[in-house]
Amino acid sequence: MSNSEPNNHYYEPAVPSLGLIEGTIIVMIVGAMAVVQWLDDQPLQVLGWILFPIEFLLNAVFFPGADTHVRKNGAALLEALPILLLGDVLYRLAKGALSVLRRVLPKRPQ
Questions:
Q1: I need a surface site. Which of 31, 32, 38, 103 has the fewest CB within 10 A?
Q2: What residues have CB less than 8 Å from 28, skipping those under 6 apart?
Q3: Distance between CA 76 and CA 70 in Å, rounded?
Q4: Cβ distance 109 to 85 under 8 Å?
């Protein structure tokens, strides 16, 4: 059915509904926010103390004037994710560079 027929009461929606992928992404984001909020509400703040030395060393190297604070669990988790991602990227780059060097350099006779 379309709007071109006379006396037709079928109308295209102004905004299409969300698909399965978009709905899943929204549910995952809301769920992650709920987990972060729950972590922040816990009385024992462990993740902040685990992240503090790592963040302190990174700030000392890259941002010497920065002031490092102990974070709550949720904030520490959100700050740890980019640090872990950076570590993974550096690991993969180093592994790839070593692989290229092994292929390029001649083998030593044994």
A1: 103
A2: none
A3: 8
A4: no
36: phi then psi, degrees, rounded to nearest 5: -65, -45
Positive or negative torsion for Cα 92, 93, 94, 98: positive
Residue 70 vs residue 110, higher pLDDT: 70
Burial class (CB in 10 A: 0-12, 13-18, 19+), 45: middle
CA distance 2 to 67: 63
b/e string for 1-32 if b means 16 or more Cβ within 10 A?
A: eeeeeeeeeeeeeeeeeeeeeeeeeeeeeeee
Span 42-95, pLDDT tens digits: 888 888 888 888 888 988 998 888 888 888 888 888 888 888 898 899 999 999
